Amino acid sequence: MSRVKVITDSAGDIPSELISGLNIGIVPLSITIDDKTYIDLIELSTKDFWTLADGTDSLPMTAAPSSEAFKDAYRVASSEGFTEIMVVTLSAKLSATYQSAKTAAEEFAAENNTVRIEVLDTELATFGEGKLAVYAAQNSDRPLVELIAEVTSLRERTEVIGTIDTLDNLRKGGRIGAAAATLGSLLSVKPIIEVRDGVVESPSKQRTRKRALDYLIDYCQQRAEIIDEIAVISANAPDTEEFVSRLKGIFPTKTIVVTTIGPVIGSHAGRGTIGVTFTTI
Fold first, then answer.
1. Average pLDDT over residues 102-110
2. Can you give the residue range of the structural domain that contains 189?
3. Taking the CA of residue 63 as centre, how many other CA atoms within 13 Å lie in the half-sphere pointing to its CB?
4. Same domain, 145 and 169
5. Threshold 0.70, pTM exceeds
């Protein structure tokens, strides 16, 4: 029986069946498209998000949950009988979500001192973050102090790396100019991106989609002996199935989870983004 309630935000791109099956609490971020704001997962599905995003030239904007939203989640957990709560959040360097969760924990302690809450900054994004929440929920029968130590160790052994298929979102967000985006598109530049130490970096740029995917496959191949669990993250990329098949050739005995990049990460990465997240032994 679970003794720790695990709560996370909606940027972790956790498959819905894992959320419900493991009773993971989700505090959603919000997405604004063309001046209309939606609550992720509640008012905006991933499918509807991509339809809306494709129909606008403006960049979808994301916002962290309020501290009150986290406090509501803590109150629900307390009403369910939990006295220990573990909160797993998107990298604090990418979002104010972690700070909202921490502020809420401090405020909640003032109204209920029978519940212990620990908030962990995963320093990751998408299913890299989500994997830590899933692991915590799968092991929620353990004492909170032990669980925090184990998930912290797992965080240090988790990587997220992928490739962006379009430069449109970088252009819309003002991170690169329109001319640079146009030139990059004409040259078929596909940046490799990774989340390292809580921030997004680009260790390489490949000239074609094929080369970018080859880079990712080679990256995994070189680490095959130390990779424990691996998952594919995809923002509706049409070559997802082929990419997974190539990974299965490297990891024939492993179950490769495939998860869809949702509105929060998709707002910044754009359609067609594909990558992997894995933990090492």
1. 97
2. 158-280
3. 13
4. no
5. yes
